[in-house]
Write the structure tokens for this entry.
Amino acid sequence: MAQVREVRLKSRPVGMPAAENFEIATVDLRDPGPGEVQVKNLWMTVDPYMRGRMNDVKSYAPPFALGEVMTGGAVGQVTASNDPNFQEGDLVVSQLGWREAFTAAPAAAGLQKLDPRGLPPQAFLGVAGMPGLTAYAGLLRVAALKDGDVVFVSGAAGAVGSLVCQIAKAKGHQVIGSAGGAEKVEFLRSIGVDHVIDYKAEQDLTQALMAGAPEGIDVYFDNVGGAHLEAALNAARLFARFAICGMISIYNATEPPPGPKNLALLIGKNIRMEGFIVSHHFDLMPKFIEDLSGWVREGKVTWKETVFEGIDKAPDAFLGLFTGENLGKMLVKLA
């Protein structure tokens, strides 16, 4: 019987997670039983939402259990199958990341056969997967992008934010993007963002935002919260729409952070602010993949990946999300 490694949640973090909150365990990989498959994971994803699952609180996704292997998106290859719908060699997407391999029933693993459509397999954990659909649904359905809109995106160099920028540009819109550091600023300029804010170099985010959009913004795609949300409220035009995707600036807070001090601007400006979770928008996936494939062929969409290698580096990759180490999608290459 082969042995494989997996990452378990050893303890619940208080504030910023640390290496000691994780442990690497070696387990036996059993042969598949009736109706089961065995999969060797090739890639796994780490995502900011996983921080919430490290807390023992009720949310839209159940918390990780202490002492148990964590879960998340992964791309793998079937190495043995007792299910007629899956053959040895098939590429698959599952929700059983954070491990080198697994044996499970396809339904329990959330197993789906992968049709690469000319894209690299790991793209289905990023631009062509959950982050990509998040960008698509948040911009087009939640924020209801319309002709002439000026779009502001925070966390714009990340997996979600960078695609939001490119979709908006593909549809002919002016885009302002915020990110931290020279490398990320240069990347945003390379994908056509009209005005880039290096928030680490700015004392006044509102002033920096208004420099790029003197007449204000119509759409704000929020990945950060905090000061970025306040600046967006200040810069919003009448009837602006805010799609609240994430607020990574507060995920590691040890006490409730203060809310935006200018929230009352929602009233006079008639702003619609809506939070959303991508799982409520999976009906858009076929249309999203169709549109994405076209944008890639036309050279309107590209993407970056930050890759850590080996299951033992998965915690480091996850922690890097909160220190700004990722440019584009943060991934762990397992094989």
